[in-house]
Specification:
The chain is about 35% helix and about 30% strand. It has about 400 residues and is an alpha+beta fold. Strands 9, 10, 11, 12, 13, 17, 18, 19 and 20 form a nine-stranded mixed sheet that branches. Strand 4 (about 110-120) and strand 5 form a beta hairpin. The longest helix is centred in the N-terminal third of the chain and has 37 residues, at about 65-100. The N and C termini lie far apart (about 55 Å).
């Protein structure tokens, strides 16, 4: 029997597959994976059944003893509360960062010593560099995005200025990002452009992933930092692939086609020698710092080919790279359920517009796209494998 009382699952939709389910919390814009038992429990709570009624239904459907069914319901509720608390903490941290960035005292930028215009996704960025800011490095790294006539739906005006003892990117007198050293300015400008492009873009979600394209095949490579995405992307771009993104890409609304974010590839100073052999001029490029303390060089056109920023490309393969020095190099097919669970760790809905149909489309997209784990010990062998996959 359904009840009229409010439920913690009023904003939650449950999307079933063969052996995993997605729970989408609309209020938090968060996706969670659940096993079939937990999904059945959440579906019952979504229908406003009481925990006792859900336990009874679970006992009948799966043949569980009533006491065990009640334990499952209680454990699922505890897990759900933990998921929600974690999501709320992430939102609170993001809100704190945003409040700090946008509530500082207004800044009056001085005269610009140089102005450059860049295009990314649906946004045209006019970037003014104050006198004394070394802008040549930023312009060299982002030269392939520079345009004076980029037809985009949004325009943003940034000022790169001195701020305290460091540097800042400001918009309309409000600070977006700050850094303390001149060699961090490139990373600061890139990060600000990417974040604002996300805000403006017509896209369903951002994925922490690299992506490359060849012969009409787009390979999406999700993974956390340290998985080897950048080195693998560089090796692939050195062998005929074009770059869609090094660290983050977007899934478009409707067709879930990939939208590129070709800001170049960040190559750490600890990268394998094979990368420096493949790109002879890379070792001569200056080293820059990132906020995480990593020292990197940027690999950009003309050394690699980058996809046009207005390109839309359907994903034909999903590959989760895992760098395993000293191990073998092997491509292992995985089921859609495992792909979904791995993908959610790298997935962030955008814009607050995701609904039940979008989640169903995401499930169908993953189910219809071949997915793999790629253990990488040899970059050369990994490149050969992905060439065979996209021939």
């Amino acid at each position: 029997m359904k009840h009229n009382r409010p439920s913690a699952f009023d904003d939650v939709s449950v999307h079933m597959t063969a052996d995993v389910a997605l729970l989408y919390d609309r209020s938090r814009r968060a996706l969670f994976a659940a096993n079939p038992n937990a999904a059945t429990i959440c579906h019952g709570l979504e229908q406003r059944l009481s925990p006792a009624e859900v336990a009874e239904a679970l006992s009948e459907e799966f043949g569980l003893p009533p006491r065990e069914a009640r334990r499952h319901v209680a454990a699922t509720l505890r897990q759900w509360r933990q998921w929600c608390q974690e999501a709320d903490r992430r939102d609170a941290r993001a809100a704190d960062v945003q409040a700090y960035a946008l509530c500082v005292l207004p800044i009056a930028p001085g005269a610009a010593a140089a102005t450059r215009i860049f295009g990314l996704l649906d946004t045209r960025f006019v970037v003014r560099f104050a006198d004394g800011i070394v802008h040549e490095d930023v312009c060299r790294v982002l030269a392939h995005l520079e345009t004076g006539a980029y037809a985009a739906g949004h325009e943003r005006l940034f000022d790169v200025i001195r701020f305290g003892n460091g540097y800042a990117v400001a918009e309309a007198g409000k600070v977006h990002h700050v850094c303390g050293r001149a060699d961090e300015v490139v990373a600061m400008v890139k990060a600000t452009m990417a974040e604002c492009a996300f805000d403006d873009a017509d896209a369903l979600a951002a994925i922490h992933a690299a992506a490359v394209e060849r012969n009409g095949h787009c390979v999406l490579m999700p993974g956390r930092s340290g998985a080897g995405k950048s080195c693998l992307s560089a090796a692939l771009c050195g062998s005929g692939f074009s770059l869609m993104g090094d660290d983050t890409v977007l899934l478009g609304t409707g067709d879930l086609a990939l939208r590129p974010l070709p800001l170049g590839i960040s190559i750490k100073d600890t990268a394998p020698p094979a990368i420096f052999h493949m790109f002879a001029s890379l070792a001569q490029q200056p080293l820059f710092s990132r906020p995480d303390g990593k020292r990197i060089r940027y690999l950009t056109p003309p050394d690699i080919v980058a996809a046009p920023v207005d390109h839309h490309c359907p994903v034909t393969r999903i590959v989760f790279p895992r760098y395993m020095p000293g191990g073998g190099t092997e491509l292992i097919p995985i089921p859609a359920s495992q792909c979904l669970e791995r993908l959610l760790a790298c997935f962030a809905p955008l814009g607050g517009s995701m609904d039940r149909r979008d989640v169903d489309a995401l499930v169908s997209w993953v189910a219809s796209t071949p997915s793999y784990v790629l253990h990488v010990s040899s970059l050369a062998e990994a490149v050969r494998i992905l060439h065979r996959l996209t021939d």
